Amino acid sequence: MLKVTNLHAQVETNPIIKGINFEVKPGEVHAIMGPNGSGKSTFSKLISGHPDYELTDGSIEFDINGKMTNISELEASDRAKEGIFLGFQYPVEIPGVTNITFMHEAFNALCEHQGAEKMNESDFREYVKSKLPILEMNEAFLDRAVNEGFSGGEKKKNEILQMLLLNPRLALLDETDSGLDIDALKTVAKGVNTLRSKYNAIVLVTHYQRLLDYIQPDFVHVLYQGQIIKSGDKTLALELEEKGYDWLTAGIQ
Amino acid sequence: MSFLEKTKSFSGYDQAKLNSLVIPNMKNEQWKYTNLERLYSTPWSPSSSQSPSERSKIDDLEILKINGASFSSEETIASIKVRKSTEQEIEMFLSREHFYSKGFLSQLINASPTLYLTTEQVGKNTPVEIQFSNSSEEQINIVLLGVVKDKQAISLRFTGKGQYHVHVWGNLKPNQCLEHVIYQELDHTSSFLFESHYNIPRDAHYRQILVQNGALFSRHNISASLTGENAETDLHGLYKPTEKSHVDNSAYIEHGASHTFSRQVYKGIIGDEAKGIFAGIVKVNKDCLLIEAEQLNKNLLLNKKAQAYSRPQMEIDADDVKCAHGSTIGQLSEAELFYFQSRGIPKERARAMLAEGFAMDVLLKIDNEVIRELTIKRLRGLC
Ligand SMILES: Nc1ncnc2c1ncn2[C@@H]1O[C@H](COP(=O)(O)OP(=O)(O)O)[C@@H](O)[C@H]1O
Ligand SMILES: [Mg+2]
Asked: Has residue A115 got a pLDDT over 90?
C-alpha cells in the first residue's frame, strides 16, 4: 500500500534523506530503528506531508482506491484523509481547543471525504468514550485543551486514541515509546495492537527494542544517515539490542 | 432654555476648560498610533433616526434594540429599566474631573445632540441586552450610565454603521457587581470611539469584556479607579481587525486602596493589513498594601502586512504588590497547523480553529453564562 522509491529530501539546502527504498503491504508491521539524528522523524514526516521538507528525487506512492498513486504533491490533510496517520514524537499543545472538539473535527473531515454522514457531538462523545478504557484514559481528558499540561505518557496515549478513532490504513508512530514507564508502555502497545489487522499497516519508529517486545514487527530496518543500511526480521532488533549500532555503522561515513 | 444652555448652569461645569480641549493628535504620547484628525476632517451629520425601539429575545436573553439616537422615555426589559437620564445624573457626569482631564469626546458630546440613558437594575439579576443600531452614515452620541442594585449583567451590542461616540460611565456602591459585555460589530465604513470609566469602592466589582469585531476605525479609552478595600475589576478585550481597519486600546487602572485587585487580558487577532494597538497603565498609589494586578496583551498576526503594537506598563509607588504583566506578538505556529493537517483538517479550517482557540480565552472570562454562550456563538458566526 506504500511504496517509497529512491527518496531524497532536504531542509533548506541540507540533504537529510539520501535514497530510501521502502515498501509496506497491508497487514504488515515494520520497525524503523537507528541512532538519534538518522532521519527517522524526517522520513515519517515526509510520508505524511510535512511542508518543511523538500523532496529532491524519488517518489512516494500510496494505494488510493486500489491504485498506487504518487502522493508527493498531496497536502498533509489530504494524505490523512486517504488513511495515513502520524503519531508524533513530540505532540504539540493547542491551548483553547478542547481535545473532543479537535478529534470531532478530524473525524468529520474523514466522514465527509468518505461520503459518510457526519457524526453529531453527543454520538461522537459516546464513540470516543468507548475507546477510552483501551488506553486507560478517563473522560476528563476530552474536555481539556489538546495536550495542554498532559504528561509525556498522557500525550502519547492521546496520540494512540486519535489513531483508534480515525482507524488509518497506515499508521506511522514516531517514538511512541519514548518517555513512557513500563505500565504506560504496555497500555500504549495494547492500543496499537487493537489497530492491527490484515487491512492496516503499522510503521513503528523507535530507537529502543523495548516496544518491540509488546508489538511484534514483521520487518526491522536500520536507518542511518538518511539511508536504510540493513533490513531483516524481528531478530535484527534483538541483535541491535545486544550489540548496539556500531557494528553496522562502523564502515559508513 | 435648551438642554445645551442648561448644562452650562451645572455646578462644576467649566466652559473654559472644555473650550481648551482639542482633538488629540499624534504628537501626544497616548495617541501616537492613532490619527483622529483624519476622522474629523470631514463633518458628520447627527443622527436623525425617529424609529421606535424594538424588543426581541434570543435564547434566554431579552433584547432592547434602540434605533439611531431616538428613545421615547422609558422601557423595562427583564430586570432593567432603561430610561432617559435625570438632570442630576447628567450633571454628575459632566462635572466630573475625568471628563475634562482625559475625555476627548467631551467637545463632541457637548456640541451635538446626545442620548443620555440610564440602565437601572429594578429586579433580580437576569441578563439583558441593549442593542444600538443605526442604518445610515451619521454621528451618534450616547452616554450610558449604569445604576445597580446588587448584581447585574448587561450586554451592549453595536450594529449597523455610522460614527459612534459612546461613554459608559458610573459609580458603583459598596458590594455591587456590574458586568458589561460590549460587542461591536459595525460595518467596515464605521468608526467607534468609546470611553468607559468606573469608580469601584469597597467590596464592589466591575467587569467589562469588550469584543471588537467590526468598524474601520476604533479607539477605546478604558479606565477604572479602585477606591476601597476589596475592590476588584476585570477588564478584558478581544479585537479582530481585518482589511485596513485600525483598533487602538488604551487602558488606565488606578489602585487607590489596599487589598484591591485588577485583571486585564487583551487579545488581538489581526488580519490582512489591519493594525491593533494596546497601551495600558496600571498605577498603584503610595501606601497601598496587598495589591494584585495582572495585565497581559497577546497578539496574533494572521498576515505579513498585519501590525500590532503593545505597551503594557506598571507605575508602582508601593511595596507589597503582586504584579504580572507582559505582551506577545506572534503568528500561528507551523507546528500547530501541521498537527491539525496531519489529522485531516485542512489548513484554512486549522487556522480558523487556532484563532478561535486563542480568542476563547477572553470569551470564557464572561461571567454571565447566557451572555457568554451567545457571544461565543456570535463570534463563530452562528447567530
Ligand atoms: N526542520 C529541520 N531543519 C533543519 N534540520 C533538520 C530539520 N529536521 C531535521 N533536521 C536534521 O535532520 C537530521 C535528522 O533528524 P531527525 O529526522 O529528527 O532524526 P531522528 O528522528 O532519527 O532522530 C538531524 O541532523 C536534524 O538536525
Ligand atoms: Mg526522531
From this structure: yes
Q: Which of A60-74, A163-177, B12-26, B199-213 has the lowest mean pLDDT?
A: B12-26
More confident residue, A40 or B23: A40
pLDDT for B343 beyond 50: yes
Give the tens place of pLDDT for each residue, B1-42: 455 566 666 666 677 776 676 777 788 778 888 888 777 777
Ligand 1 atom, smallest distance to A39 CA: 17
Counting ligands in written order, the one closest to the CA of A40 is 1
Residue type for B220, please? H
As a whole number of Å, the end-to-end CA separation of chain B is 46
Q: Is B341 on the interface with A (CB under 8 A)?
A: yes
Global pTM exceeds 0.95? no
- Say if residues B53 and B65 touch (Cβ distance below 8 Å): yes
Nearest ligand 1 atom to the CA of A89 is: 21
What pLDDT is recorded for position B103?
54
The predicted-structure confidence for B278-317, as pLDDT tens digits, reads as follows 999 999 999 899 999 999 999 999 999 999 999 999 998 8
Question: A112: which residues sit within 8 A by CB, 6+ positions away?
Answer: A118
How many C-beta atoms lie closer than 10 Å to residue B327's C-beta? 17
What's the ipTM?
Answer: 0.96
C-alpha distances in Å from residue A194, one per residue of A110, A174, A190? 20, 18, 6
CA distance B255 to B236: 17
Residue type, B222: I
B376–A contact, CB cutoff 8 A:
no
Name the nearest CA neighbour of B155 among B78, B96, B221. Answer: B78
State the average pLDDT over residues A206-226.
93
Would you call A105 and B335 a contact, using CB atoms and an 8 Å cutoff?
no
Domain A2-249 architecture:
3-Layer(aba) Sandwich (3.40)
Contact A42 CB / ligand 1 (< 6 Å): yes
Other residues' Cβ atoms within 10 Å of the Cβ of residue B301: 19
Question: Chain B within 8 Å of A77 (Cβ-Cβ)?
Answer: yes
Nearest chain B residue to A145 by CA: give it: B357
A80 touches chain B (CB under 8 A): yes
C-alpha dihedral sign at B331, B335, B337, B340: negative
Q: Which of residues 218-257 of B touch A (CB under 8 A)?
A: none
Of the candidates A169, A9, A188, the residue with the CA atom closest to the CA atom of residue A91: A188
Look at residues B282, B294, B280, B209 and name the one whose alpha carbon lies nearest to residue B248: B280
